[in-house]
Amino acid sequence: MSNRPIVIVPVDGSRETEWTVAFASSVARRAAADLHMVHVLSRAGGRWIGPEAETGVRARLRALRPLVEREGLRFRTITLRGRPESVIPAYAQLNAAKTIVVGRNYGTSGFWRNGAVANRISRSSPVPVIVLPTSAPVEPVAPLSLKRIMVAVDFNVASAIGVRTASDLARRHGARLTMVHAMTWPPNMVFSGGEAARLLRGLPAEASAIAKRLKRKVRAFRVGDVESLVVTGVPSRRIVETAASSNADLIVMGVAPRTPFDEAVFGSTLRGVLRRATVPVLVVPVVAGGQPWLDDANGSDAFSFDVAEGAVTPLAA
Question: How many domains does the structure of the chain reveal?
């Protein structure tokens, strides 16, 4: 068994697969990793079928071999049976994969392409997942030539890990880092006219306080050039709009596990971002991501991460 890192790229019979494999090949080459192209068969009517006709997938894989070989990669084609959101993360776990690269519309019907499967893979994966937009940009992003990174931030552990990941990338690439926190506005409650006006007047002060709090938190990650933004509106829309206005090459999001029922009832910022983003989204799944970002009862920072040692240590009083 090879000791080299592994980059996994799920493939189906769609035309978007070529762009996804090209991007994954570039990631694998720069990471000196092997590439595993994974084709998933699911059971229907008593037989195993792929997201697209199986013959179409196999034809697509044959067509992609020259592209991968040009990158000089060691690669394998793997066939798995089951639900993609279950078997792909399991394969990544068993093989200690470095990352998964998946197209936003992977595994969905040719009649209704959407990011449902990519969203579920991202939340259940044991490793970071790069979700690519529908088609290749005019000038494809070079994975190790990032100039501007944007990380979506909330006040939970998932965000802390997302910021740590984005900070590491920013230092490695000499990129500028932008943190954005989206405040839902209007609030999901009904207020009288006077109460709504009072809340609106208080928005600038609240946004300023949140921006300062974010800057305090990011000091623990020892990253220099950081811009902290607080925006209002529908979070998924505002995150994508802010990424576009800041010319971000990559959006980073730390996410906690969610059930499909939970997402259907309460909505999903990740799903909205994946649907609208025009640049790759690096999703960092965090098992305990829903917990508060190590704040004490009074809201002050009680702990900080020691990035160099990977430890969590109390702050001095």
Answer: 2
